[in-house]
Amino acid sequence: MRLSTILFLITSAFVNAQMYIPADPADLLFAEEKIMVGGEDPGSLMVRPVVPVSTKSTSPWSLRIRNELFYNSDSPNLENTSDRWIGKGGSYFTAANIAYNSKYFFGSIEPYYFVSQNQDYTEPDRINLFNNLNDNRPHGETPYTSIGLREIQFYINFKGFGGGYSNANMWWGPGLHNSLMISNNTTGFGHLVLGTINEKRYKNWGFNGRYVFSELGKGSKNKPYFAGFIADATYFSLPIVTLGFSRILLSGGTNTSYAISRSEAAFLPFQILSIDSKSGAKIYNRPIEQTYTGYLNFRFPKSGVVLFFEWGRNEGPIDFNDLVLAPDHSDAFIIGLRKYGLFDNINLFIAVEYANIAHGALWKTRETHDWYSNPQFEYNTYNGRHWAAHSGPDSDDFLLLIGYTKDGFAVIPSFNYERHGLTHSFVPTYEEADSVVDDRVLGEQYLGEERTIYRGDGKIAEAKFEFRCDIRYRYKKYRFSMIYEYEHVLNYRFVDSDESKSNRSGNVFWFSLEKDFTNIIDNWFRN
Length: 527
Fold this sequence. Notes:
The chain is mainly beta. The protein is 8% helix and 45% strand.
């Protein structure tokens, strides 16, 4: 049977052709085949959110109301959940998303309320480099509540080009489980957008590009500037090939002696080596953090296969000599495959993905600017979690996902193996008061105080195994979902000396109900 039949079975159940596609990885699975089979599609999925093209046959309005219940038996462990930070105990999230889409304007807003019991648990004691992973506790309130407006988007659109303001989560790149640059792992932050609102087509080519600028607000202690762009080009042939490039620079903030202006920070992504202050002094990478990636995405519509590779570096000025002599210096990559119509069964699909963000092999003997490891910018975090790859610095992450879908029903089990501290396995050790400490610089000894020190002699990384089962069902205007996740951590906090302290397990149950009220609001405005 043709792959277009799979398109109908999967996407008709979960993705409307004119629906706004957010940064949530699940939406990538259910929407990706629209590009693979050609014809009418929502545009490139390498840059999300994807704003739909307005047509006369569809309502300009949409309204969806969602309620979600969570129960977590242990520490937080869910990734890519945006504003939902699921602490220990019960949690509840409710939101109403209203959007309007016309020929020249797109707008959306989502009032929400979230509350978590946030019960006490044994919070991991690690070096600062790993203190922003998803099992840490950035919010100490019990209960923890959050209320506000999310998914705010206001874009002026003229023939696919435009700009505006948004605080919606973004996702850059071809990955399903991780993104090297930016993902929906934490709360979305307010930013200005310029570029293509949806993909532009010229003959067999598609072009997509966006520039983003933000001054990170209340979710950041240091409040640095965030400026970056992503651009890609797609050639529609057999296979369909997408080539893209992205670059992000962090600068300024309260934790630096260099005062950079908004205009200087805004133009950083378009400069090659340095910026000039008003006095003419050149400032290089510290206090500026730069990450850039390139990616290739191949889609084979006849076989239902998607292959992709993303590679990038985290460093100061672009140094081509360093790139040749030390190709693993501050690099990272994501590689993956997705196959729809597995074993010639129109209801099956599979995804395999591996991300490697380990420090370079020579990190002990030479300066290296590794991914998400700059404390000046809070290790690339916002609201207590990493806003790019959720596995964080010096990590790798493997995902295997198998899905079944038919007649509005989908079940998607997945397995995830994630490691932290591949080269920085520092073991926390309690040191009692009056311990003898050797001062190697002065050649003296003194009595130390009560404290926790970190020995850099850890033998193995911290490892996390997760099993997840995602069940979804659509009935008329209702969407039901139930997600169960089991997590087991080995060498927890890099404490490999006591088995009772070095292992941890937890369970999360997640129930969701969403109702589409678009017809009601459309009739109300028409009348």
